[in-house]
Structure formats: C-alpha cells, structure tokens
Specification:
Helix content of chain B: 25-40%
Strand order of the largest sheet of chain B: 7-11-6-1-4-5-12
Order of helices and strands of chain A: EEEEEHEHEHEHEEEEHEEEH
Order of helices and strands of chain B: EEEHEHEHEHEEEEEEEEHEHEHEEH
Number of domains of chain A: 1
Distance between the termini of chain B: 52 Å
Number of strands of chain A: 15
CATH topology of the largest domain in chain B: Rossmann fold
GO molecular function, one term (chain B): flavin adenine dinucleotide binding
Cofactor (chain B): FAD
Largest sheet of chain A: 9 strands, mixed
CATH architecture of chain A: 3-Layer(aba) Sandwich
CATH topology of chain A: Rossmann fold
CATH class of the largest domain in chain B: Alpha Beta
Distance between the termini of chain A: 54 Å
Radius of gyration of chain B: 21 Å
Largest sheet of chain B: 7 strands, parallel
Protein name (chain B): Electron transfer flavoprotein alpha subunit apoprotein
Strand content of chain A: 25-35%
Keywords (chain B): Electron transport, FAD, Flavoprotein, Transport
Structural class of chain A: alpha/beta
CATH architecture of the largest domain in chain B: 3-Layer(aba) Sandwich
Shape of chain A: globular
Number of helices of chain A: 6
Radius of gyration of chain A: 21 Å
Oligomer: heterodimer
Number of domains of chain B: 2
InterPro entries (chain B): DHS-like_NAD/FAD-binding_dom, ETF_a/b_N, ETF_a/FixB, ETF_asu_C, Rossmann-like_a/b/a_fold
Helix content of chain A: 25-40%
Strand order of the largest sheet of chain A: 11-10-9-12-8-1-6-7-13
Largest interface: A-B, 83 and 101 residues
CATH superfamily of chain A: HUPs
Structural class of chain B: alpha/beta
Amino acid sequence: MKILVCISNVPDTTSKITFTNDNTAFNTAGVQFIINPYDEIALSKAVELAEGGKGTVTVINVGDASTDATIRKALAIGADNAVRINAVPRDAWFVANQIAQYAKDNAFDLILTGRESIDYNGAQVGAIVGELLHIPSVSIAKKVDIAGDAVTVEREIEGGKEVLTAKLPIVIGTAEGVAEPKIPNMRGIMSARTKPLDVLEPSAIDVLEHIVSYETPAPRGTVKLVYAAEVEKLVSLLHDEAKVI
Amino acid sequence: MSILVYVENTDGKFKKSAFEVVSYAKSIADNIQTDLVAISIGNVAEDELAGLGKYGASKVLNVNNEQLASFVNQAYASIIAEAVKSTGSKILVLSNSFSGKGLAPRIAAKLEAGLADGALELPTINGDKLTVKKTAFSNKAFATLELTSDIKVIALSPNAYETKETGGSANVETFAPNIDQTDFTTMVKEIVRATDKISLPEAEIVVSAGRGLKGPENWGIIEELADVLGAATACSKPVSDAGWRPHSEHVGQTGIVVSPNLYIAIGISGAIQHLAGVSSSKTIVVINKDPEAPFFKVADYGIVGDAFDVVPKLTQALKAYKGI
C-alpha cells in the first residue's frame, strides 16, 4: 500500500499568537514550529499501516526551506521519504492543487491529512485533494480500519458517530483516536538524516482567497469571585447579570 | 442572482444549525437585495421544508431521492454545486458542522470558489469582493478573509449567529439533479447517536471538567450539574488522553472548539491550549481549588473551592432556582 501523508508546519500549541506589520502578518519571532498535531496522528497511523513491509509512507509538505526541520521530524517518526513543494502556502486551493498534482503522478492508495491545521483551521486541503482526484474523502475520522482495499471509517457527527465503508483510494482527515502519536527513537532520528527529501517546484495556480488582517480576542473584564458557601449568589449572577440561565 | 443556503437535516428534521444558516443567509440576501433559496437533501416533510420561510427562505429546493437518503459526501457536493449553478447564485452558505466541513471544500473546488470556513460574523460585501471574520490559530486569534473568486462559499460556525424569525412560508419545489453514479463511493453502515445527550458543538451550555476530578468514577456530579442545566458535558485534554472520557468530549486547541453562552470549567487549570478552545464562549465560570489557576484570568465568574464540595451545592441551588 502506497500512503501519502500531507503535513503542515505550524506554531507549537503553547505559542502565544501575535501579529506584525499592522496586524497583517503572523509574528514568527520566538515561535517554535512543529508538525501539525493532527497531521502527526495521520503520520502515526500511516507508519502503523505500513509496518512490517506492508507499505510505504511518503510525506508531502508545501513550504519553503524553513519547513525542512519539520519534514525531517516526520522522517524520524517513520516516513520512508519526503517531498517538499517549494512554495509558501497561499491558500487551500493552491496547496491542494500542488498535492493533487503530485498524487496524480504517483498513484497513492491512501492519502492522509490531519482533520485541520491548528494555524489557519481551514480543514479544506484533504477534501479538495479528494475532489481534484475524484476519489472519496472523509473529513473528521475518529477510527480507520483498512483490510485489503476495504476501508471502514468512523467519523464524528453532532451527538454521535457515523460508520462508513469505502474502497481505496481514499483521502482521510484524521482526528484524535485514530492512532497513538509515535515518538521518534534514536534509530529513527539517525536514519531521518539520510532518507530522501525531494524538492519540487510548484505548479502555477491562481489563489481564490487571502487574509487581509488579524486580530486577537478582546480581553475579558476581571473575574467576579463568589464564595464557595454562597453558590446561590452565582446562580443569581448568571440569571440577572450574565442572563445565560 | 440569488443566494443559496444548504440546510442539513437529521432524520427528516432540521437542526438548529439549519435555522442559523438560513437566518444568516437571509441577512446577506437583504443586504444585497436579492432572494434567498434553500436546498435540502433527504427525506424531509413538506411542512418542515416550508417552515424555512419563517427564517427568510423564499424558495426551498427539495431533493428527495432514495439513493440520497443517507449522507454521501461526494454526491451531496455535486448536487449542491449544481444547484448553485442552476440558480445562478454567487454566494453559497452552509453550516461548518461535521458534515459541512467535509462538503464545503468539495463544493468550493467544483466551483473554483474561495471558502470562508468557520465564519463568525456577517460578511462585508464590496462589489465583487467579500470579506468575513473567521477563527484562526484555533481561536487564539481571528482573521479577516477576503474571497476574490467569482462564486463564494461561506461555512458558518455553529452558535455564531442567532436564529431570526421573520415570518412567511417558503415555496417548496422539487429539484431533480443529475445523479453521477461514480459519486457513490462511500456507504453509511451505521449511525450511533446518543439521543439523551446534547451535542457538544451546538450546546448553549457546556459543563466541563479536568484532572481536578481525580478519576472517571467521579463524573457523576458533573453529569448531574449538566442535567439540571440542559448542558453538554466536556473535558480537558489530559482527561481524554487518560481515557477517563471519550475524545469527542475534549475541548481545546486540538479538540473541539466551542462557543456556548455559558461554559463552566471545573477542576481545569486553564492551559493555553484549552483556553483557545473556549475563548469565544459568552460567559465563563471557573470552579477550582487553586486560586492561582490561570483559568481565573479569563473567567467572568469564579469560585475558589473544592469541586466535590462546590459542584453538588451548585446543582442543588440550580434545582431550587428552577423549582425542580
């Protein structure tokens, strides 16, 4: 089974998010970048499926050379090879077209992404890749089972879950529960240095959207404390002041 | 040039998110002085469809086809894209629900349309350009996104826009789309819905607990409080990682992002990743025995105290208030 895992390079989850250039650009100063946590789940699942010679895992990232460290980490976790499309991601349509082009040329059985990236929260790329390749896509999978070319996916729906079946090839966006994140071991880290990382130039694709500006949430007022012995007071505040009950 | 809105149903009934997207799309339609057309796929009764008129739809396209009785992502996307074209719509609105998240990008790709996923407010429309506010960095920030494509798709965050009843009844028309058999590549085998539970992303009140509860056996007090409030239950990441609660309850940057009217956090210290998931809640109440817990800094109301003492008392006080 040939598996393609799409990874994105995002700020570490502990990062404080600030902006520069009059709130038009993300301030990367002092920010540590990591593999998008959901993509790490996708990668861990791919490595698990390929274990024991059952398949190969290729990771793909659309980014400039600054993402190489994150790609090497993915190789250390267990991907066999990596591809970087040498372009700063512009919008989901641009990124998905680059990935779809590569996937078309290399005929993968399974394409995994994270359910969404934790920076732009688009949750678009996987489904667009599916559309461009005219293969099914599942956006928020909680459980993935593959036997031969039969795929069973459990996906989240409001207040429950839906179990669906499909056949390979398919695109699946993974959420928590699909696989335990794999921690790279020393051998993985050593071998990651010599695994192939191909850099390809992007196709020319028009963009459909762009971010004009950013803002951070308005701070809340000071907390009103209520004594533990006076919970009735909290009930009245929620009713009379906050008007939420 | 009308606006098209896709409305999701569950077992033939429209959900709250359906009324939210219709109300939202109606405001846009009024703003640019055009009509709002809704499209529904599945087995929904005529009066339920006509009822969308109350929220501002003037016409409802009804796709009722045996093959489409349950959700097929690719087929639904093709049909909605076809409806956008046949109605000449330049704007499509749908909910950024779990199914909506899977549908919207495929529809947008078919139409080469820009997609504002997780829109939080009404858009600003200026000629061919549309800008709208959406979440970014998992709720640690907001971005104003500009869609420059000819057709534009907006996926509205659940709970972000209040439903508005404007009165009226919609004309229901049968819409018979081209059915492409190659779109039927997935099959729903089973749907499991906990009917007695309130869906977390759509809940107006959320009661959430963390490691301060000490173990899964202690969740009874959380569930009782949630019951009294008609709230959904949620938890922090360490709790779902430890298997005390299912991942579907994990609220935070890498879990579910919620924006309820009231979020009650019990025994959760307030790590930055958790706060990201709840920062757009309208009112936040924190109950924690550690007065230094970072969560108090972003709370509206707080009680410094032991959850095992405070929570049952709060449940009692709410019962008394509600006369239960």
